[in-house]
Design a protein that fits this description.
mainly alpha, 5 helices, globular
């Protein structure tokens, strides 16, 4: 048991390359393409973190999914793009 009541076990923050990275590469799309296509507030840094597997909130993952669906005319789900 931790010494302090507020101490929590550390959650993993790095999950390795994500399926979204492979999909963007196959489609020939870069980070800027997603940022430019999005009507929501997403940044190049968010997309970069998504591709390399740094933990993102569900809200950010959904924004990235919507931008990709808009660009690719596909209907990807969050579970298909991220493995966490």
């Amino acid at each position: 048991m931790p010494d302090t009541p507020s101490a929590q076990p550390a959650r993993p923050r790095e999950f390795g390359p994500q399926p979204i990275d492979r999909i963007l590469t196959e489609l020939g799309l870069g980070n800027h393409d997603l940022v430019a296509a999005s009507s929501e507030q997403i940044t190049h840094k968010m997309v970069s973190k998504a591709r390399r597997g740094r933990w993102l909130s569900m809200k950010v993952r959904c924004k990235i999914m919507r931008a990709l669906n808009k660009l690719s005319a596909a209907d990807y789900k969050v579970k298909e793009l991220f493995n966490y």
